[in-house]
């Protein structure tokens, strides 16, 4: 029997929405490490500055249409074991995130 696929979910979020987004993805099953330690809610968070310019049809949570905006954001990285967990975590993130279009990435991981 082969081990389940592992994915890394990375997303960017304003500090005010960090806890809601982490709660949502962890409830969906993200952040669990397989093995005897039974670790849950595992993530790494780092600070940075994001920038964006909302287009004419945008309804930005932060900033104004047409104006370049720079905001403090947090980058969150976590493990998802199984494609089903990854899909559920991304769906939960999109529901919990305050941005009109949340920025996120998913990478398939390899075991060596």
Automatic annotation (TrEMBL):
<dbReference type="InterPro" id="IPR036069">
    <property type="entry name" value="DUF34/NIF3_sf"/>
</dbReference>
<protein>
    <recommendedName>
        <fullName>ATP phosphoribosyltransferase</fullName>
    </recommendedName>
</protein>
<dbReference type="InterPro" id="IPR015867">
    <property type="entry name" value="N-reg_PII/ATP_PRibTrfase_C"/>
</dbReference>
């Amino acid at each position: 029997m082969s081990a389940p696929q592992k994915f890394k979910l990375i997303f960017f979020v304003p500090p005010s929405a960090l806890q809601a987004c982490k709660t949502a993805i962890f409830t969906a099953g993200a952040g669990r490490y397989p093995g005897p330690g039974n670790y849950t809610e595992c993530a790494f968070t780092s600070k940075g500055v994001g920038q964006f310019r909302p287009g004419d049809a945008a309804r930005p949570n932060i900033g104004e249409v047409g104006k370049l905006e720079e905001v403090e954001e947090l980058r969150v990285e976590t493990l998802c074991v199984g494609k089903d967990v990854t899909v559920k975590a991304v769906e939960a993130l999109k529901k919990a995130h305050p941005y009109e279009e949340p920025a996120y990435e998913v990478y398939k991981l390899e075991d060596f």
